[in-house]
User: Fold this.
Amino acid sequence: MSENFFIGSSLDKKSKYENLLSQLPALIANEPDLIANLANLSAIFHQTFKWWWVGFYLVKDDQLVLGPFQGPVACTRISFGKGVCGTAWKEKRSFLVPDVNNFSGHIACSSISVSEIVVPLFNSSSEVAAVLDIDSEKFGFLDETDMQYLEQIAEIISKSLFY
Ligand code: SME
Assistant:
């Protein structure tokens, strides 16, 4: 993974995503270690978007296990079909949750987190290999624009790290 990465803090959200998408392939090239790449990606997301919590949960047997992240201490294990993360795994699709109070079964690792997006990452067999989870302390902070870009980013990460 390249250590060179820069996205201007004054850019609007779309420009930050476009910038990230253009730098992403080079960022994860040349580093074969999954955890090293996911750790730096978490740092890049946190640094660029200032999200309250961002990280990865990895599918290990019948659970999601906490992987690299940036933010406060979080739940370490999530079962298949449980919470937003486990539901994204089960249904093999992204979830945008503007208000976690309206998502039945949401797992509150922290009461401060009130909205979230979860995007699955797939392996070459089209099975979920991990999920990207982003939490905000503000209601409705994450939107359709975030989800569209995060799905593009997830596809690149999936093909580079999980295929
Ligand atoms: N809220 C998530 C659990 C993970 S933490 O928020 C980091 C869920 O419902 O799956």
About this structure: The radius of gyration is 15 Å.
